[in-house]
Amino acid sequence: MKKDKITTFTKEDINFLIGNYANNGVVFCSEHIGKSKSSIFHKARSLGLRVNREVAIRLRTKCRADNKCKVKKDQFINI
Asked: Which of 2, 20, 4, 1 is nearest to 12 (CA)?
């Protein structure tokens, strides 16, 4: 069984999330704070934070343009 690691957030971390999560997303906050994307996501949700719709669309578009999306076209079989 995997043992969960408890991630603690300082007041500075929480203030950073409150000020930046909606406009910059999870990756930016994760890189700045130095915690995993998963822990940032869950902490932001627990604080009631969400990424702005326009930002989410921009980040998805950037992912596709940079070709850094998780799904690769080579994973599919051409029939």
From this structure: 20
Determine the Cα–Cα distance for residues 12 and 45; give it in Å rounded to an integer: 17
Long-range interactions of 54-61: CB distance < 8 A, separation 24+: 55/22, 55/23, 55/24, 55/25, 56/25, 59/25, 59/27
Q: Report yes or no on whether pTM surpasses 0.85.
A: no
- In the DSSP assignment, the letter for residue 71 is -
Tens-place pLDDT, residues 25-45: 898 999 999 999 999 999 999
Q: Are 52 and 20 in contact (CB under 8 A)?
A: no
